[in-house]
Amino acid sequence: MDKHPGHSLIIALSMYSILPMPRVDWREDNMRWSLACLPVVGGLAGLLLGGWCWLAVSRSMAPLLFAAGAVLLPLLLSGGFHMDGFLDAADGIFSRRDRETSLQIMKDPHCGPFAVLCGGALLLVNAGSWSQLLSCFALLPAACLTPLAARSLTVMAGSRLPYASTSTLGALFADRAAKGVKKAGVAEAALSLLLLPAAGLLAGGFPALCAAAMAVAAALLWYVYFRRLTLRRFGGVTGDLLGFLVQTEELFLLLGLALGSLFIPQ
Fold first, then answer.
1. Does residue 74 surpass a pLDDT of 60?
2. For the whole model, what pTM was predicted?
3. Least buried of 53, 84, 131, 180, by fewest C-beta within 10 Å?
4. From CA 6, how far away is CA 26, in angstroms rounded?
């Protein structure tokens, strides 16, 4: 049992967000539950998004301004931590080189063309999805839960999948994680994904529930494909690949909700 259970949360918040935290030594006993605390940052991002949605709806905000703010708020809260991993992983994945070369490309601090293209596409699709969702109030509560769900799925991946040979920081957190983190990751993922259709049902009835369920299905299918991709291409995950998973799971959840909103009567 941890002597200071709150230290894992402090380490997670200092690592995965820009929030100022007290200094805590990164000892094994302090880091045991840090990986499992990642969804807390997603929950905080959801609160920020909820406030932004309330402001947009109450003040009749223009869709483009609303979408820009909704895309930037989670990025600002995380300090671009996961986006940095997404960009590095995009260069490695789309280089189509052998395993070792692709892993070395991901460790290169320089930004390649695939990172630029994928980063631009990610932001564009996210902004378009948020803009569409502003016209469907019933799905906005579910949309605010997407950062939580994406990070919960990432905890499940980070605690259950093997790590590639070049992984350092991600493997450090996994190696020092408590044995219960694997079960916690599955529980967090299941609960957070169930919250989306529940929020849809409460806010918009059965049609919104169906739209949220479609988004959850898309996120789960992407998780299965991501698992297969990382094991086949890289022999496991890295910190960059987990950042890639956070950003792409948010993308599929938001896009699923936006497409689902097209079938909800206004």
1. yes
2. 0.94
3. 180
4. 13
